[in-house]
Amino acid sequence: FGCFSYDPGFTITASCKSKITYIDGDRGILLYRGYPIEQLAENCDFIEVAYLLLQGELPNATQFRDFNLEISDRAIIHEALRKFFDGFHYDAHPMAMLVGVVGSLAAFYHKEMNVKDPQHRWICATRMIGKISTIAAASYRHSIGRPFVYPRMDLNYCENFLNMMFSRSSQTYIDQDHYIDPFLVKALNLLFILHADHEQNASTSTVRLAGSTGANPYACVAAGIAALWGPAHGGANEAVLNMLAQIGCAENVPKYIAKAKDVNDPFRLMGFGHRVYKNFDPRATIIRKTCHELLSKFQKNDPLFELALVLEEHALKDEYFIERKLYPNVDFYSGIIYKALNIPVDMFTVMFAIARTAGWVSHWLEMQEEQPGMPIGRPRQLYLGPQRRDFIPINQR
Ligand code: CMC
């Protein structure tokens, strides 16, 4: 078999060195560049956090203003890129459109791109953060057959995204008086911060692996988006809402808990369990609190949130979940907030991708800047196929 160690899920293998995000899974600690996630979620704007992830330090007021301007300035997309959407069927999954259109950025920005030049790398990173929300909103507009809404420089990142999603051609969603409730913008900002980075998760590792070959960075991020889509990763937020709808009511909860415990049943409680967090996911704690605040502020009695609380309560008391240290993760409650923001369920993972772009490009920058001579990522395998054998002509097989 060769003399390799076998660790298919990277459970005990560090794939890189990084200074960006720290997780202590046993104590439920998450730090971005040393700052606790709770403090950043409470006090920051998402773009401030994006700057922190990219640069290593929080911006001062001037740096923040300039960075905001730079990101807004890069939000516009090429008209030809916008036309890509015309080629998609109206009911194409928005994640499929996102993978395709983000990947096509490589076709727009390839010739002049020199990954060895720090200025080029910076432009590429900020361009990705600027354009991802425009592309994401365009995929939604395409799916509902409404015209594309251009990004606005006078709105902050989250306001601008909501405006591009929901504005009607005759009326902007956010006017001078902030037509949209700032509380909703704050909730979106919070989710974006919580999703912005999470060290070497599957999608970030994909971006790094693709990046290790020297591939075009936009293509690397498209690879990360593809990895995020799966239900074991970012696709879980969409799967949670679908699961809650399937469970339907509190009376059915014990039946579904039993299904999740049955080794012969592939069903899993979506939004439960985490490779690293074995006590609690600090992001889930913050989101759960925000769900309560949001729904009570708008006096919305979301039956799915009530159901999620019942499901959580049952699971946390169950031996199976206790023994395996399975707790709600970030995706268990995030969909309830997205639903309150009128974001359609199939856009949930796209929302995750918008936020995680800040993390992906930070990791891509880090690997280019700090490990210039780094080797190509090239895992080995344990070969289980046939031993050497001789070719047999087709008429003798
Ligand atoms: N429901 C029921 N059983 C579960 C679940 C679950 N959600 N998660 C893990 N288990 C069981 C699993 O069957 C196994 O049992 P046993 O030891 O008897 O074989 C044990 O717990 C360990 O599970 P694992 O699959 O070996 O753990 P992992 O670290 O490889 O997987 C996970 C982590 C997140 C993929 C997994 O918990 C899962 O599939 N959860 C549901 C999907 C989900 O919510 N994903 C979002 C993750 S957080 C956000 C993100 O990463 O994007």
Automatic annotation (TrEMBL):
Catalytic activity annotation: oxaloacetate + acetyl-CoA + H2O = citrate + CoA + H(+)
Residue numbers annotated as active site: 274, 331
Keyword Methyltransferase: no
One matching Pfam family: Citrate_synt
Cellular component, GO, one term: cytoplasm
UniProt KW Cytoplasm keyword: no
Keywords: Acyltransferase, Transferase, Tricarboxylic acid cycle
GO biological process, one term: tricarboxylic acid cycle
Molecular functions per Gene Ontology: citrate synthase activity
Functional pathway: Carbohydrate metabolism; tricarboxylic acid cycle; isocitrate from oxaloacetate: step 1/2
Matching CDD domains: EcCS_like
PANTHER family, per the entry: CITRATE SYNTHASE
Family: Belongs to the citrate synthase family.
Protein name (Swiss-Prot/TrEMBL): Citrate synthase
Organism: Methylomonas paludis
